[in-house]
Amino acid sequence: MNNWDKLYNKAKEVQNGREISPFIYGGQVSAAIITDKGNIYFGICVDATCGLAVCAERNAIFNMITNGESKIDKMVAITSDNRVGAPCGACRELMMQLHKDSGEIEVLMNYETMEIKKLKELVPDWWGIDRFK
């Protein structure tokens, strides 16, 4: 099993769309990342009527940071119909800000065709690269 299969399967394993309360819904989108050290972290989206919510990708990133890491190698997000989806703008921005080499993060765009893009392709001409120098 390759790393993409591991990430996809881990994200699918934790995905469990459900009502947590009358105000909070979670798990309809899930994500998994693998770091440069080979560790896998995952997360689910959590949506709340108060507006305090988090995407699955950011949840996985926060899990990684909580465990002392900050350099992502690969990332996959799965939507509620088990298709791979690209990260939103906020998640792309957070990933770019993690490390000077974050533009090299590989993002799975399509599981069936194994279409992969580098984060720098999804965030061209990123504004903050000079701050890493």
Fraction of helical residues: 25-40%
Work out the strand percent.
25-35%
**With helices defined by DSSP (H or I, 4 residues minimum), what is the helix count?**
4
Q: Secondary-structure element sequence? A: HEEEHEHEEH
Overall geometry: globular
Rg from alpha-carbon coordinates: 14 Å
From the helix content, strand content and strand pairing, which structural class follows?
alpha+beta
Give the total of beta strands. Answer: 6
Q: Quick one: biggest sheet?
A: 6 strands, mixed
Q: What is the typical, i.e. mean, pLDDT?
A: 96
Cα end-to-end separation: 37 Å
Low-confidence stretches: none
Descriptive overview:
The chain has helices at 3-14, 56-66, 89-98, 119-122; strands at residues 18-19, 24-35, 40-48, 72-78, 106-110, 115-118. With 133 residues, it is an alpha+beta fold. Strands 1, 2, 3, 4, 5 and 6 form a 6-stranded mixed sheet that branches. The longest helix has 12 residues, at 3-14. The chain is globular and about 45 Å long.
Question: What keywords describe this structure?
Answer:
133 residues, alpha+beta, 6-stranded mixed β-sheet, 4 helices, 6 strands
Chart the SSEs and their pairings:
Blueprint: H1 3-14, E1 18-19, E2 24-35, E3 40-48, H2 56-66, E4 72-78, H3 89-98, E5 106-110, E6 115-118, H4 119-122
Parallel strand pairs: 4-5
Antiparallel strand pairs: 1-2, 2-3, 2-4, 5-6
